[in-house]
C-alpha cells in the first residue's frame, strides 16, 4: 500500500480539505487499528523490500562460485531461487525419510558412510544406494539400472518440491470422529512418505545441522523404547506366544479408531503427541488371553511383512524374510525368542548381495542366541552367487525393493487379521488342520523325509466392542441424525403383514407349506452348525464355562429334534407328515443324516423308524437321487446285518419288514435301468439281503440293475 | 509360497515373464516389475499379442502400468517362444487378420439380431454390458 510521507505529496491536490479530513481520519484509524496501520504493520515499501532482497542475492552470489555470465547479472528470479534452494537443501530432512516409491531419485551430496553399521541402514534405501554405489564398482561388473537412471535429475528441484509438501500435510487424523470412518490424510495405499527416524540415526548419517531436527524432537516425546508401530503392537502378542509371556506387554487392543488413527498418522509420516500418549497408555494393559493354536508354525512369517513398516518407524531394522525369528520390538524381552525347531529358508534371491551381507552382519551382532542361523552362512554364499548371476542377466531386476515387497505383504497380512479365524476363515483353517493331521499320520507311519510345512499365522486380534453412540454436542437440543457407514439411516419402514387363511387358494397353501418346511430346515441347520461347533468351543473355553456350554448344546439338540418331528406332537405322533416333508427335500435328507449322530438313542431310533415306515414312498422319490439311494442302501444293509447276526429276531417276526423289502425290490425293479441313479457306495451285503426275499430270476435282474456283481461298476 | 504360505501373492512373481489378460480382451506379455496391494502391475518390455486363429503378432509397447481391476488373469511364462504351435506373423498382417475377423463377427451378429427381431425377441446391446 502506498504511503506518502505526507499528504502534500499527493499528486491530486485539488480538494485539500477533503484530503486533510482524510488525514485526520487516518490518524484516528491509526490509533484504533495498530495492526493494520500502526506498529504491527509491516512497512510495505516494495522498493525497500526489493533492495533488501537484492543485497541477499549479492551475498549469495558472491559466496558461490561464479557460474559464468549468467551468475550475478540481472536475472532477478533465477538467483534468489538458487540461494533459497541451497538453503533448503541444507534444511531438508534427510533422504531416508522418503517414500520407497520416490526415493531412488535423490543422489545426495553426503559422502557415503558405510561405516555406520550399527545404525539402521535399511531404513533408507537411499542410504543403501549411497553405499551401493562405491561398493558396486568394486565388486560387480554389471550394474543395475537404478544406478544409471536416476541421479541425473537435479536434486535441488526435488528437495524443493518435496519439502513444502511434506510440511503442509494436514493433521486430519486427529480431527473428531463423528461417526464416519476416520479420514486419512494420505490414502492407505501409499507407502510411507516419510519415516520417523530416531535422532541417533540422523546424527550418524547426516552430520549437517538441521533446524528441523529440533522440532522433531518435540514431536516424539516418547522414549525410543516405547514407540511401537501399530504393526508391532499386533506382532507383539504373537511373539510372546513363543513361550515368553511377559507381564507388561503391549496389548493389541487398540480400538478401531485408535488403530486407524495410528495408521493414518503413520501414513502421514508424523505422530502427534496425543497419539503417542495413547499408544504408551496401552503399554500397561495386561495381555489378553491368547489362542494356543497360534503357537504352531512359523511366527517369522508374521514378522517379515512388518519389516517395512518397522523401518518406517525407525525401530530396529527391517528384517528380511530370510532371517527367521528376528526380534522386531524394541524391548529386550522380545530378543529372547527361541527359534522354532523347523527352520525354514525362504527365497532370498531378491536381495542385493550387499544388502544381504550387511544384514547378515547385523544379524550376527544382534542374535547371539540364535546359533542355528550362524551355521547357515554357507547357504547364504550359494544364494549370493545365484543372485549375482541373476543380476548379470537381468539388469532391470530388483526395481522393487525388499522394503516395498515387505510393504505390500504387510498390507496383505493386515487384511488377514481377524478376531475369530474359525469364523472368518473356516475353510482355510479346516484345510490346514486336515493337512497337519495327514502329515502327523505320515510321520507316525513312515520315516519319510520331513517336509517342512510352513503355516501362515494370521494374527488374532482381540474382539473389540463397537457400540455406536450417536454424537452429541453440548448445548444443543436433541441429537443429530448423522447418517454414516456405521449408522445408516432407516429408509423404509417395512411391515410384515400376514395373510388371512380364507383368501389363499389351494396352490398357495401347498406352496406355503413347502416354504415353511424350507424355513424349518434352515433353522435346524443353524442349530446343527452351532452344535457341531461346540466341541471346538469346549476346548477353547475356560473351566467354569464348560457346563454351561454343554447345557446349551443339549438344549439345541432337543430343539433340532423337535423341529424334525414337528412341534407339540400328539401322544403317538400320529403323523410323520412334518418329517416326511423334510425328507422329501434333499437338503432335509442331508440334515437328518448329519443330525443322527447327535441325537439320543431313542430319538435316533424314532427318526429311523419314521424313515423306515415311509421308505417306499421315499424310494419312489429318491430313485433319481443318488444321495437318497445311498441312504436307502445303507438302511437296507443295516437291516441285513441285523438279520444275519440274528440278534434282533423281532425284526424277522415283524411282517412289516418283509413287506418293506418286497416293496423295495418291486420299486427297484420297476424303475428303468437308465433312470436309476448311481449311488455313492453300495454296501456289499445287499445281495444276500435280496436273496432272502426274491427268487433267482429277479435276483439276477436286480444284480445287473444295481451293478451289485463285482466287476461291473 | 515363501512369503505367505497358503495365500496367493504376486511377490514371488516379480521379475518374471508374465502373460496378462485384460478385461478388454487384450493380451500383454512382459516382465512383472512391481506390484501393489491392489494388484496394479508394472510390466516391462511389454508386448501386446494379438491372436487370430493360428497366427499371432506382437506389438512392442514398452512399459505398461496396469490398474489392478482391469486384470482378468495373469500367469508366468516359463516355456520358450519356440515351443508353440502358433505361427508368428508381422504386425500389419495380424492387424489385417484381426480386422477381417471383427468384420465377420459383426456381420454374423447383425444377422442374429435381425433374426431375433423378426421373432419379437431382443438381446441387450453388448456395450451396455460388462464384457469379458
Automatic annotation (TrEMBL), chain A:
Q: What is this protein called?
A: Protein PAT1 homolog 1
Q: Which GO terms describe its biological process?
A: deadenylation-dependent decapping of nuclear-transcribed mRNA; P-body assembly
The keyword rRNA processing is assigned to this record: no
Composition skew (Low complexity), residue ranges: 171-182
Query: Which InterPro entries did the record assign?
Result: Pat1-like, PAT1_dom
Disordered, as annotated region? 1-83, 147-184, 310-395
Q: Name one GO molecular function term.
A: RNA binding
Q: Which organism is it from?
A: Catharus ustulatus (Russet-backed thrush)
Q: Name one GO cellular component term.
A: P-body
UniProtKB/TrEMBL annotation, chain B:
Keyword Endoplasmic reticulum assigned: no
Assigned keywords, A-Z: Cytoplasm, mRNA processing, mRNA splicing, Phosphoprotein, Ribonucleoprotein, RNA-binding
Q: Enumerate the subcellular locations listed in this protein's record, separating them with semicolons.
A: Cytoplasm; Cytoplasm, P-body
Could you list the residue ranges that cross the membrane? none
Cellular component, GO annotation: Lsm1-7-Pat1 complex; P-body; ribonucleoprotein complex
Cross-referenced SUPFAM superfamilies, in alphabetical order?
Sm-like ribonucleoproteins
Q: Which domain of life is it from?
A: Eukaryota
Where would you say this protein principally sits, based on its record? cytoplasm
**What Gene3D superfamilies does the entry give?**
2.30.30.100
**Protein name listed in UniProt:** U6 snRNA-associated Sm-like protein LSm1
Amino acid at each position: 500500500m502506498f504511503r506518502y510521507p505526507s499528504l502534500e505529496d499527493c499528486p491530486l491536490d485539488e480538494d485539500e480539505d477533503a484530503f486533510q479530513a482524510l488525514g485526520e481520519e487516518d490518524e484516528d484509524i491509526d490509533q484504533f487499528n495498530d495492526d493494520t496501520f500502526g506498529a504491527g504493520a509491516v512497512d510495505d515499501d516494495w522498493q525497500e523490500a526489493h533492495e533488501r532482497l537484492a543485497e541477499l542475492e549479492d551475498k549469495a552470489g558472491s559466496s558461490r562460485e561464479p557460474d559464468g555470465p549468467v551468475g550475478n547479472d540481472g536475472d532477478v528470479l533465477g538467483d534468489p531461487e538458487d540461494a533459497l534452494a541451497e538453503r533448503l537443501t541444507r534444511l531438508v530432512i534427510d533422504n531416508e525419510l522418503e517414500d520407497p516409491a520416490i526415493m531412488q531419485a535423490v543422489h545426495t551430496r553426503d559422502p557415503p558412510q558405510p561405516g555406520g553399521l550399527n545404525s539402521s541402514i535399511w531404513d533408507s534405501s537411499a542410504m543403501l544406494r549411497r553405499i551401493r554405489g562405491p561398493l558396486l564398482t568394486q565388486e560387480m561388473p554389471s550394474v543395475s539400472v537404478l544406478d544409471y537412471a536416476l541421479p541425473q535429475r537435479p536434486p535441488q528441484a526435488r528437495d524443493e518440491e518435496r519439502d513444502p509438501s511434506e510440511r503442509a500435510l494436514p493433521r486430519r487424523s486427529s480431527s473428531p470422529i463423528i461417526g464416519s470412518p476416520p479420514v486419512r490424510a494420505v490414502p492407505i495405499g501409499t507407502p510411507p512418505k516419510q519415516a520417523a527416524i530416531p535422532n541417533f540415526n540422523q546424527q550418524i548419517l547426516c552430520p549437517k545441522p538441521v533446524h528441523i531436527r529440533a522440532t522433531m524432537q518435540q514431536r516424539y516425546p516418547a522414549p525410543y523404547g516405547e514407540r511401537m508401530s501399530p504393526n508391532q503392537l499386533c506382532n507383539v502378542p504373537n511373539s510372546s506366544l513363543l513361550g515368553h509371556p511377559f507381564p507388561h506387554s503391549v496389548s493389541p487392543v487398540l480400538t478401531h479408531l485408535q488403530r486407524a488413527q495410528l495408521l493414518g498418522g503413520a501414513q502421514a509420516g508424523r505422530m502427534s503427541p496425543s497419539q503417542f500418549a495413547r499408544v504408551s497408555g496401552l503399554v500397561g494393559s495386561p495381555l489378553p488371553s491368547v489362542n494356543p493354536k497360534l503357537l504352531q508354525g512359523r511366527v517369522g512369517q508374521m514378522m517379515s511383512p512388518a519389516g517395512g513398516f518397522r523401518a518406517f518407524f525407525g525401530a530396529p531394522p527391517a528384517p528380511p524374510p530370510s532371517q527367521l525369528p528376528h526380534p522386531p520390538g524394541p524391548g529386550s524381552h522380545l530378543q529372547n525368542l527361541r527359534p522354532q525347531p523347523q527352520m525354514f529358508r525362504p527365497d532370498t534371491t531378491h536381495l542385493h548381495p550387499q544388502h544381504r551381507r550387511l544384514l547378515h552382519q547385523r544379524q550376527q551382532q544382534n542374535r547371539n542366541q540364535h546359533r542355528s542361523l550362524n551355521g547357515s552362512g554357507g547357504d547364504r554364499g550359494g544364494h549370493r552367487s545365484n543372485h549375482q548371476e541373476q543380476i548379470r542377466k537381468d539388469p532391470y531386476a530388483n526395481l522393487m525393493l525388499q522394503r516395498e515387497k515387505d510393504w505390500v505383504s504387510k498390507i496383505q497380512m493386515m487384511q488377514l487379521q481377524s478376531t475369530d479365524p474359525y469364523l472368518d476363515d473356516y475353510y482355510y483353517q479346516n484345510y490346514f488342520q486336515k493337512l497337519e493331521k495327514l502329515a502327523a499320520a505320515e510321520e507316525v507311519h513312515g520315516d519319510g523325509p520331513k517336509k517342512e510345512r510352513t503355516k501362515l499365522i494370521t494374527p488374532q486380534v482381540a474382539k473389540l466392542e463397537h457400540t455406536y453412540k450417536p454424537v452429541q454436542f453440548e448445548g444443543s437440543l436433541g441429537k443429530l441424525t448423522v447418517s454414516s457407514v456405521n449408522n445408516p439411516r432407516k429408509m423404509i419402514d417395512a411391515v410384515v403383514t400376514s395373510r388371512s387363511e380364507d383368501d389363499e387358494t389351494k396352490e398357495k397353501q401347498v406352496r406355503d407349506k413347502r416354504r415353511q418346511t424350507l424355513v424349518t430346515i434352515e433353522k435346524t441347520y443353524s442349530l446343527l452348525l452351532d452344535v457341531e461347533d461346540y466341541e471346538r468351543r469346549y476346548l477353547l473355553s475356560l473351566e467354569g464355562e464348560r457346563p454351561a456350554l454343554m447345557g446349551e448344546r443339549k438344549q439345541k439338540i432337543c430343539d433340532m429334534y423337535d423341529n424334525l418331528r414337528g412341534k407339540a406332537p400328539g401322544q403317538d405322533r400320529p403323523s410323520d407328515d412334518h418329517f416326511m416333508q423334510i425328507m422329501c427335500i434333499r437338503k432335509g435328507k442331508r440334515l437328518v443324516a448329519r443330525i443322527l449322530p447327535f441325537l439320543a438313542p431313542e430319538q435316533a431310533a424314532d427318526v429311523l423308524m419314521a424313515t423306515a415306515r415311509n421308505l417306499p414312498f421315499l424310494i419312489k422319490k429318491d430313485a433319481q437321487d443318488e444321495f437318497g439311494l445311498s441312504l436307502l442302501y445303507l438302511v437296507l444293509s443295516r437291516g441285513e446285518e441285523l438279520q444275519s447276526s440274528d440278534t434282533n429276531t423281532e425284526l424277522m417276526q415283524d411282517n412289516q419288514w418283509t413287506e418293506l423289502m418286497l416293496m423295495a425290490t418291486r420299486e427297484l425293479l420297476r424303475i428303468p435301468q437308465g433312470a436309476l441313479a448311481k449311488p455313492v457306495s453300495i454296501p456289499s451285503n445287499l445281495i444276500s439281503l435280496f436273496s432272502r426275499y426274491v427268487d433267482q430270476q429277479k435276483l439276477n435282474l436286480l444284480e445287473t440293475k444295481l451293478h451289485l456283481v463285482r466287476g461291473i461298476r | 509360497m515363501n512369503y505367505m504360505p497358503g495365500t496367493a501373492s504376486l511377490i514371488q512373481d516379480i521379475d518374471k515373464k508374465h502373460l496378462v489378460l485384460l478385461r478388454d480382451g487384450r493380451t500383454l506379455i512382459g516382465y512383472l516389475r512391481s506390484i501393489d496391494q491392489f494388484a496394479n502391475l508394472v510390466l516391462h518390455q511389454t508386448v501386446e499379442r494379438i491372436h487370430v486363429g493360428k497366427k499371432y503378432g506382437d506389438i512392442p509397447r514398452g512399459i505398461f502400468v496396469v490398474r489392478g481391476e482391469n486384470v482378468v488373469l495373469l500367469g508366468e511364462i516359463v516355456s520358450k517362444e519356440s515351443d508353440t504351435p502358433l505361427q508368428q506373423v508381422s504386425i500389419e498382417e495380424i492387424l489385417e487378420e484381426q480386422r477381417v475377423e471383427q468384420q465377420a463377427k459383426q456381420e454374423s451378429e447383425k444377422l442374429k439380431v435381425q433374426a431375433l427381431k423378426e421373432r419379437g425377441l431382443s438381446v441387450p446391446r453388448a456395450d451396455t454390458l460388462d464384457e469379458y
